[in-house]
Amino acid sequence: MPEENVNKQAQAGQNPKDEEPRIGVYVCNCGGNIGDVVKCDMVAQTLGKLPNVTVAHSNMFMCSDPGQKMIADDIKEKGINRVVIGACSIFLHEQTFRRTLERAGLNPYLYYHVGLREQVSWVHHGTPKEATEKSIRMMAAGIAKARNMKPLEPVRLPAHRHALVIGGGVAGLRSALDLARRGLQVTLVEKSHYLGGRMAQWERVFPTNEEARPLLKRLIDQVLAEPNITIHTGAQVAGAKGYVGNYTVTIRQQPRGVRGTFPNEQGVMDVCPIKQRCEFNYGLSTRKAIYRPYKECVPEGLVIDWEHCTKCGECVQVAPEGMINLEEEAHEFTVEVGAVVLATGFQPYEPFYGEMGWKEYPEVITLPQLHRLLDDEGPSDGKFYWNGHPVRNVALIHCVGSRQVEGVHRAQMDGEVNNYCSRVCCTASLSMASLIRQKAPDAKIYEIYEDIRAYGRWHEDYYTRASKNNVTFLRYYAEEIPEVRRADEKAENPLLVKVRDHLTWGEEIEIPVDLVVLSVGMMPNPVQDLMEIFKVTPGSDRFLLEVHPKLRPVETAVNGVVLAGTAQGPMNIQESCAAASAAAAKVSALIEQAKVELEPYVAHVDPDQCQGSGECVKVCPQEEAIELKTFSENGRTFQRAVVTPANCNGCGVCVSVCPNRALDVQGWRLDEYEAMVEAIAADIPAWEGAA
Amino acid sequence: MPTEHIKVDALVVGGGIAGMQTALDLGDQGYQVALVERQSSIGGKMIDLSKVFPTLDCCSCITTPKMSATAHHDNINLLTYSEIESINRNGNGFTVQVTKKPRYVREDDCTGCRSCELVCPLEVSEDEHEFGRTSHRIVYVPFSTAVPQKAVVDIDNCIFCGKCIQACPSDAIDFTQQPEPVEIETRSIVLATGFETTPIDAKKEYGAGKLRNVISGMMMERLLAPTGPYGRVLRPSDGKMPASIAYVQCAGSRDQTLGVTYCSRVCCMYAIKQAMLLSGALPLAEITIYYMDIRTFGKGYEQFYQNAKAMGVEFLKGKVARITEDADQNPIVRVELIDEFGKTRVTERQHDLVVLSVGLLPGGNPQAKFGVPVGEDGFIQVPDYNVFPAVTSQPGIFVTGTALGPMDIVDSIMMAGAAASATASYLESSNGSGKEAQSQPERSVEYA
User: Fold this and answer.
1) Dihedral over alpha carbons B271, B272, B278, B279 (to 10 degrees)
2) Which residues contact A661 (CB under 8 A, 6 or more apart)?
3) Which of B226, B416, B443 has the CB atom closest to A161's CB atom?
4) Of the candidates B197, B209, B110, which has an alpha carbon nearest to the alpha carbon of residue B153?
């Protein structure tokens, strides 16, 4: 632990600040990632000639245990007190090497990392000589910085043992449950007025074939049983202040308008004159402006759709006194949390008008709609009927809104096509084919696909079962999108699907069908507001981006903000639950001890130089990060700038405006920069192979 | 010999990526963890890989820091080269008997300097990490990035010449070492017992392992790895640089004749990844992937597949029926191709090297050893697969990684977090500890 090391150093009388710099330089081959381009041993050899460089090594994998041991041994045995490493990206292994220094008893901030992979080998792979020379210069600059580095201590702060989970779908519920069971306080906010998210709308879930809502209900019951979890439905995050361990989050909650359940709910809904598209059934039915989202929804009871309610008061008349309040207003409150879990989920891809007949023909629906259609509690009570007639021929078209090809498919608003696979649709479609077969034993079922991606455990069984169930498979290529058109009026089936089938030697086949199901992919829920509030970023697929898929798979670049479930990318329910649980583990590790450590790269005022001009306070973009305070000394009063490290994000704007050069960012001081610039511009030692 | 006693909150069985990550995620939450690994180093299958999809990070750069972090973690007690003998339920916890196999090198004294290795006069070619493509000395450090970095003696092949004893600067060699019993008392167990790959000789249609230029995907990983046997890609029969390389997908998966009906989930991506790496290593080589369905389902995977196509890797749909060889030991692949020109044809195509994209089989027999039920596929079966995938039917026993079924590294790491979380939930519950009397402290630290 850091404190111990400080003590150890103090005991040993080591104060690196006063010592002559003894720099250890290490050049990593990165298993060929760097070494195939940059002559790493030449770099090390050359840098070894620079002043203050005590040792210079190259190694295949500096980050491996033997590599780290080399550094630790040099610190202990050769008195190395500054470390410069040329390796991969700082994002990958800064933490790794800091821990190495700590274990060896050196302040972890006496280390500088040069990115030789992203900044050299990957961008200069055709020119090894120049790449080697650039590496030498960059590392020479690092060495120059290292000479001036001072030991730093992280900013240590108390943290709330309290997490905010945003999103009450299966991932959010699962995260909340694990966090609560771990002993943390949890606030769960859900935008809609019921828990369960998209999973509640599924008829059943693969690969276990369980009915979705009873499975979900069991999870919800466990969540409700946890005293550590506070749930707010109809609630959204309106703003947040703070940093890891200490966020103050403002939550805005829409009123439900209805206080609880009562016997005459149906009567109340009946008198409401407003009819609206039912979102729960994906528009396959209508609902009133006062409605129950779905039968077993939690929290139970009716809810008012304020957007469409005219406040006519009909419902108030019929309901028991005091149960409905049409004058209720939204209210805001704040919670203080240490970490935030983004479980904001996905929305099904919305095809554009005319895409394979979508909206053009009423007989074209999406896979989520098919779920509702086949649901016993759905708009047709689970009968496989469309327009009042049994469906005898049905085609399911895969990869609608997924695996799109630029120039073939129409781009989204941002100009990009969805070039990713949505992961769940293949098995979901196959499982629906099985259900259709149960409900309509004689129906002709066509699965029109690109590749069948039944990758998961027991997924392949659905594929096998579909084949045995006489499902007909036709394979198309993304470049030739199947066409859906209206059959002529006398035809038995209203639609025709034309597809070039690559299982029958590229034959063009036209299938008459009653219903077309578009197996639509996943898109992230629009969370632009949350991205701005918590400063997290999306990837090129618009899903929220993790730091690294293997090293830090649920963390965002913002410490204390983690991802759970389909906010991060397409996942099925098992994967969402695993990811949500992993997010909970990360949050637990972060705030369970009720304290956090922040980077020490914050502004620092030299009180001898500061004249209290206040320029820094004017330009500081952070709240309460720097302020002028009045001091008095020997009867003289004067003002000096004072930094609150927890609120400073180290941007350095204050440094640039200070007229007295009284400010510096710790770890990135101006004299360090100057030394680096000089080193880059200086002549480098001659090296073998330079000619 | 006195039995060593260890008391922990959680025992993790298996030191591959899933086991290491679970141990780290539990250790980071403040739990005491013992990690038992059968091999002489942790790292599992992952440490043998070259680069990893879809980021193409060098695999060692992801694995070795995790190995190092596991070994140095204050809350993790690492037992390598150790076998679990028995598990007995003991109240709410377990008593686990473990045998530390003799390394014939005292772990505390060995510094991993390899002086012994340099003087050892004998080599054997059975290196489990290189699939017999290279050899190791009788006394050796398992591989350059092994954790712990300690030598081990292959006692069955040792002639006891004693040179290593003379060479060892720290007097660590000890031929009298005996198996050491260790008793672990733990409140919970996480099974990270991993997977094996389909044996190369499993399918007689694919030459039953007798065709020299038909290798497995794992062998290709070693050929591509910077620490690999040749430092470049050469084919086994004559050391020639292959100009034409073919991948046979589903060689061991989705194959009823082998009793493996499931998809192994990783093979499409590793074949595509290797094809990309080969395009770099052998720019002139032609690379063909014969497939049934391309299953690039994960985050960034489809884009990765499209990049490979754009790089010129040839993807041909068709299940390879048979592989034979010609007089020069060039493999010949017989396949029915459905090509884009609207005709099917049964064809035979000659390649210099064929890589079988072998599948994933369950590692070990968790049912026999740990009493957890397995499915028909041999992987551990859990009661609530969708919502609580890490929780087995045995209270206090959890599962992670490929012990639960084929999965890639990204998903294994995710599952590791899930298993750690599930274990933590259990440990905090009354069943896990009797800790229920201890109320959770309110926020103990006030704002400064």
Assistant:
1) 160
2) A609, A670
3) B443
4) B110
Closest to A516 in 3D by CA, of A379, A380, A355: A355
Chain B contacts of A420, Cβ < 8 Å?
A: 299-300, 302-303
Q: Counting every residue, how long is chain B?
A: 448
Distance, first Cα to last Cα, chain A = 48
Tokens of B248: 């046979």
Say which of A30, A543, A595 has its CB closest to residue B61.
Answer: A30
CA–chain centroid gap for B10, Å, is 22
CA A2 to CA A153: how far, in whole Å? 8
Q: How many domains does chain A have?
A: 5
Mutate to test the interface with B, among A3, A38, A63 (most CBs of B within 10 A): A63
Mean per-residue pLDDT for B31-59?
A: 94
What CATH number should be reported for the domain holding residue A548?
Answer: 3.50.50.60
**E strands in B166-279:** 180-191, 195-197, 214-216, 244-251
Instruction: Check which CATH number belongs to the domain holding A641 and give it.
Output: 3.30.70.20
Summarised one tens digit per residue, pLDDT across range A176-203 is 999 999 999 999 999 999 999 999 999 8
pLDDT digits 0-9 by tens, B320-363 = 999 999 999 999 999 988 765 556 678 899 999 999 999 999 99
CB within 8 Å of chain B, chain A residues 524-563: 539, 541, 543, 548-551, 553-554
Quote the domain boundaries for residue A293: 265-318
CATH (domain of A41): 3.40.50
Strand partners, A393: A444
As beta bridge partners, residue B349 has B333
> Is A687 a member of any domain?
no
Residues A290-299 pLDDT 10s: 999 998 899 9
A368 lies in the same domain as A492 = yes
Q: Which amino acid is at A525?
A: N
Q: Which CATH class is domain B198-359?
A: alpha beta
Q: Are B138 and B157 in contact (CB under 8 A)?
A: yes
Backbone angles phi, psi at B391, to 5 degrees: -95, 115
Round to whole Å and give the CA distance between A251 and A533.
12
Residue showing tokens 């093979």: B267
- Give CATH superfamily name and number for B4-101+179-194+363-433: FAD/NAD(P)-binding domain (3.50.50.60)
Shared domain for A84 and A173, answered yes or no, is no
Structure tokens at A601: 């790269």
Roughly how many angstroms between the first and final C-alpha of chain B, as a whole number? 54
Q: Residue A60: which residues within 8 A CB-CB, separation 6 or more?
A: A28, A29, A31, A35, A67, B60, B144, B226, B227
Please name the residue that has the structure tokens 């001659």. Answer: A686
Q: Is A29 on the interface with B (CB under 8 A)?
A: yes
